[in-house]
Amino acid sequence: MRWKLVSTLIACAFMIAFGTGITNPSSVMAQDKGLESLKETGVAFRSVARKISPAVVFIKSESEVKQPAAGGIPFPYDSPSGDDFLQRFFGAPYQHRPGKPHGKRREVGQGSGFLISPDGYILTNNHVVGDSDRVSVQLLDGREYRAEIIGTDPGSDLAVIKVDESDLPFLQLGDSEKLEVGDWVLAVGNPFGLSHTLTAGIVSAKGRSGIGLNDYEDFIQTDAAINPGNSGGPLVNLDGEVVGINSAIFSRSGGYMGIGFAIPVNMAKNVRDQLIEHGEVRRGRLGVYIQDLTPDLSESFGLKNTQGVLVSQVVEDSPAENAGLKSGDVIVQIDGDPVDDASALRNRVSLTAPGTQVSLSIIRDGEAKQVKVVLAALDSDKVDQPDKTAEVADSGLTMRQLTPALAQQLGYEGEEGVLVAGVEPGSIAERAGIKRGSLILEINQQQVSTVDEARRVLRDSAGKAQLLLVKIGEATQYVVLKPE
Q1: Which of 106, 305, 319, 339 suits 325 as a labelling partner, its CA being 20 to 30 A distant?
Q2: 276 with 292, same domain?
Q3: Are residues 481 and 395 in contact, defined by beta-carbon separation less than 8 angstroms?
Q4: Cα 228 from chain centroid?
């Protein structure tokens, strides 16, 4: 009996070693379920690709530009620098070699877009077609059309173009508010000219703002692989509905590094309607300078949390002043919807038509109040601005937006620049002689007028010597921030 048991065990071990016998049934079932789940995911991706690809278009834009002083032979480049930067997907702009005279040349760019109606309306990015003299599109089946630019909106980086055709395939627009972090999304476009490329990823984050790409930002962040040429293409959910318009990436090399940004489709819907109806976007204006609430500010104003937006200044003869808003008011709701931060309020007001009455729920001196405001029309000189501050750790600078009130107080009326709100002791900024209250006019010979611009230029040249043009009172001088 003992020898029979031993021989049986030896046989079992032999069969296990050579994979011909005993296997854990539960393990097999788990593997089968895992494979089936992967297959189902693949089938879902395949189904979405078949559904949406016919409505995605390849866009080629052409414009005539003057040769720079250097003149010469054009050659494409992949990236302007090896430093961190936010790379647009316009295609391949050109640099020039010296030795040739002035003249004009045709610049060709490429991008993506997608049909939003059977009669040929196409949604894309402003930076794909905005300055173009000629735009053409190509469909998946090879058909090519000349496209007309219906309207562009640089503030949101959106544009609508149209081809003269009917019965075209088009995509349904979804609801970007329903997106959750972790949801599957697919990106379709023409990266590096490779037509109708599909990539998959997840929603990495929502509500990204303060990046410095557009005037109005509320980006969806995704890790779906997108590259130069994807701009203007759709970001879709697993139902094949458009939830975003791919717009930019964060990259060291100019290529995919896992961080892409898409404009939420709910913002795009409003812009699309106005561009088709008016050829432009007509934005509302409240007339305030606003800033996000920090825990310290919230405590100072006797608030229980940081939900809401602090009014730092009310513009003279503005809708806000006419309605009785005051500095120190905290706006917590607009038309009953919560206000989370300054960018969200600014986006909401900007997408509301001039002449519309909105109801603001505010907190003033610890008491809740309701204020009715009739929005005016926004113009370029009267933009509702978040009162932003930003710290740049490497330089030791804290910068703040220059408001009209601060300009008047500090003697910088009529100037454009970024105010130095603080200088860290012992920092390279302090050693360079920069003082609190200085006005930064230029960084690396680039004019800066917003905190976002200044922060971006400093970040792009991090680790290198940085040339600043700084004004203190009536005196203007150049200073160099040199890293240790």
Answers
A1: 305
A2: no
A3: yes
A4: 15
C-alpha span between 116 and 119 (Å, rounded): 9
Burial 421-446 (b: 16+ CB within 10 A, else e): bebeeebbbbebebeebbbbbbbeee
Contact 129, 160 (CB under 8 A): no
Which pLDDT tens digit goes with each residue over 73-131?
Answer: 222 323 333 333 334 433 333 344 444 455 566 778 889 999 999 999 999 999 999 88
* Main-chain phi, psi angles of 10, to 5 degrees: -60, -40
Q: Does 230 share its domain with 250?
A: yes
The CATH number of residue 64's host domain is 2.40.10.120
461 given a catalytic annotation: no
- For residues 85 and 257, give the distance between their C-alpha atoms in angstroms, rounded to a whole number: 12
Domain boundary among 266, 281, 296: 281
Q: What are the φ and ψ backbone dihedral angles of 91, each rounded to 5 degrees?
A: 125, -135
Per residue in 388-436, pLDDT (tens digit) is 555 665 678 888 888 776 777 678 888 888 988 888 888 888 888 888 8
Active site residue 350: no
For residue 11, being part of any structural domain is answered with: no
Query: CA–CA separation, 201 vs 178, rounded Å?
Result: 17
Rounded Cα gap, residues 454 and 475, in angstroms = 21
Does the residue 136 lie in any domain? yes
Q: One of 53, 153, 157, 361 is an active-site residue; which one?
A: 157
Do residues 137 and 161 make contact, with C-beta atoms less than 8 angstroms apart? yes
Which residue out of 61, 112, 127, 384 is catalytically annotated?
A: 127
- 157 counts as catalytic: yes
What CATH code is carried by the domain that includes residue 474?
2.30.42.10
- Same domain as 120, residue 93: yes
- Please state the pTM of the whole predicted model: 0.65
